[in-house]
Design a protein that fits this description.
It is elongated and about 85 Å long. The chain has one domain (about 1-135). The chain is built from 5 helices and no strands. Helix content is about 85%, strand content about 0%. The protein has helices at about 1-5, 10-20, 25-80, 85-115, 125-135. With about 140 residues, the protein is mainly α. It holds the Pfam family FHIPEP. Keywords: Membrane, Transmembrane, Transmembrane helix.
Length: about 140
Amino acid sequence: GARFTLDAMPGKQMAIDADLNAGLIDDAMAKKRRQEVAEEADFYGSMDGASKFVRGDAIAGILITFINVLAGIAIGVMQYDLSAGDAAEVFTLLTVGDGLISQIPALVISTAAGIIITRNTSEDSLGSQITNQFKVHPKA
């Protein structure tokens, strides 16, 4: 998605130049369209980075959960003299609980990182940008 949009940016810039040269738009409109294209490029570039961050966070969470289950079963069998089935039942349940609790801060951090990373380079403050985004589709 983002890569294709970023690859199309030079074509959009050339289309603006062609419209300007053909007299279909004036200098002010061309400047406005160039600014929109630049903001779109900044947004999609930031989203590309944010999606890689969130994907890495999700992969790390899955890996940690898998390691916790295996280590819990091993500890249950070796230290607590549980059968493999009992150890799997107990430590899988504990790992799922731990995973749920640890994902709440991860969700908050990922959301905050996404908001900060995707903030474009416009002159508006972060608060006004967030407010404007919520006003775009108030019923959604």
